[in-house]
Design goal:
By secondary structure, the protein is α/β, with parallel strands linked by helices. The chain has helices at 12-24, 56-59, 64-71, 134-144, 157-168, 189-202, 254-258, 297-311, 380-384, and strands spanning 5-8, 30-33, 74-76, 80-85, 90-95, 98-103, 106-109, 113-115, 128-129, 149-153, 172-177, 205-208, 210-218, 221-228, 235-240, 242-245, 249-251, 267-269, 280-282, 287-289, 325-327, 334-337, 346-352, 355-361, 367-373. The chain folds into three domains: 5-114 and 250-311, FAD/NAD(P)-binding domain (3-Layer(bba) Sandwich); 117-245, FAD/NAD(P)-binding domain (3-Layer(bba) Sandwich); 333-384, Enolase-like, domain 1, CATH 3.30.390. Helix 1 packs parallel to helix 8 (297-311).
């Protein structure tokens, strides 16, 4: 029997690839190595599951055994890939304290990204959590049973989504953000203001220009010490029950790096999702595709479909058309299509009573991106049609 295709990771990237591959190839052995329990769920749902009434168990659409049956695959749960032998084409795996070697014909790294951890002083950091997978979310939900006052670190996309979700569920929410507005990476100032005001009306307390420096025990609660991001020496204290860190993610590259596979910000791959080793591929949040690291659903789906064809024998390059991002903040519906990093241009902003329409134009006047709030979000499809794709 031929050696299997091995996928490391059972997140949306790994399972979508496996499903697309099985549509094209019913016979090649397939194995999936996963650090968690192997349930299929949509990670983007984690940031709005609370007000949606979804428990961790309800978010898990299929268990590992169901997925194994559907995919005609071996799924190794609670198993960590620890090393790759590129010459021998084997991967070392660790489960229940025992190490084994698995041979592969092609190896796919779909390991996602890991939370960036801040250095926070104090004896109260046991109540500092991050949510990056279903196991994390289950622990977070258990902590929320006794937590009413929540501090969210980071006013970016995930931080704003969780703030909206927690506040709508009746929690007292403080958002701590070093910048001077929410979603600063994606939005021009007027749109930032719209999101800020809408979440304020919902009940969110903003702390812009601030960072969490210390977290101390204070009985059953915690005292959060915020310092100014400008190092002015000013600080304020907040009484909270739980701190949720949403300051960003870092692609998981250690396994590839240790094996001598080229990395940069992520695992470097070409448009066929092939790494510097011709039998090793990468996709999803851990991959850097032709210089782009895009931790969003649509690029992942496009990559999975293209890579499935390549693994099935039809070499296929991934394409990235214009891919708007829907921000899950019902208090202020928002859709963004970020312009290319560091591209020259300026925002053309139309502020309406029911929303903001902002288009980023090149110096020549060509639209390169947009940010829409409120009723203006209805224009996302039409605008996306005139924006050039990143990889076409």
């Amino acid at each position: 029997m031929a050696e299997p295709v091995i996928i490391v990771g059972s997140g949306l990237a790994g399972y979508t690839l496996a499903r697309e591959f099985r549509k094209l190839d019913k016979n090649t052995p397939l194995a999936i190595v996963t650090r968690d329990g192997g349930a299929f769920y949509s990670k983007p749902m984690l940031s709005n599951a609370l007000t949606g009434g979804k428990s961790p168990e309800q978010l898990a659409v299929f268990g590992a055994q169901d997925m194994a049956t559907q995919l005609q695959a071996e799924i190794l749960v609670r198993t960590v890939a620890t090393a790759i032998d590129r010459d021998g084409k084997t991967v070392d795996i660790l489960a229940d304290g025992a190490t084994a070697k698995r041979s592969y014909s092609r190896l796919v790294l779909a390991m996602g990204a890991e939370p960036i951890h801040l250095d926070i002083l104090g004896d109260g950091v046991d109540r500092l959590v991050s949510v990056n997978d279903l196991d994390d979310y289950a622990r977070f939900r258990s902590e929320l049973v006794r937590a009413e006052r929540i501090a969210v670190l980071g006013g970016g996309l995930v931080g704003c989504e969780f703030a909206n979700d927690l506040c709508a569920a009746g929690k007292t929410v403080h958002v701590i953000e070093p910048a001077h507005g929410p979603l600063q990476r994606f939005l021009p100032a007027p749109a930032q203001q719209a999101v800020k005001e809408a979440l304020e009306q919902l009940g969110v307390h903003w702390h812009f220009g601030s960072m969490l420096a210390e977290l101390h025990r204070d009985g059953e609660s915690r005292r959060a010490v915020l310092k100014r991001a400008d190092d002015s020496g000013e600080h304020i204290d907040l009484d909270v029950d739980l701190v949720l860190s949403a300051v960003g993610l870092r692609p998981r590259v250690h396994l590839a790096d240790a094996a001598g596979v080229q990395i940069a910000r992520g695992i470097v791959v070409d448009r066929a999702l092939r790494t510097s080793d011709p039998d090793i591929f990468a996709l999803g949040d851990c991959a850097e595709v032709s210089g782009h690291v895009l931790p969003f659903v649509q690029p992942l789906m496009n990559a999975a479909r293209a890579l499935a064809k390549t693994l099935a024998g039809q070499e296929t390059k991934v394409t990235y058309p214009a891919m708007p991002i829907v921000v899950k903040t019902p208090a202020c519906p928002t859709v963004v299509l970020p312009p290319p990093d560091r591209h020259p241009g300026s925002w053309s902003i139309d502020e309406r009573g029911d929303g903001i329409r902002a288009v980023f134009n090149s110096p020549e006047g060509s639209p390169l991106g947009f940010a829409l709030t409120g009723a203006a979000t209805g224009e996302k499809v039409a605008l996306a049609k005139v924006i050039p794709g990143l990889l076409e």
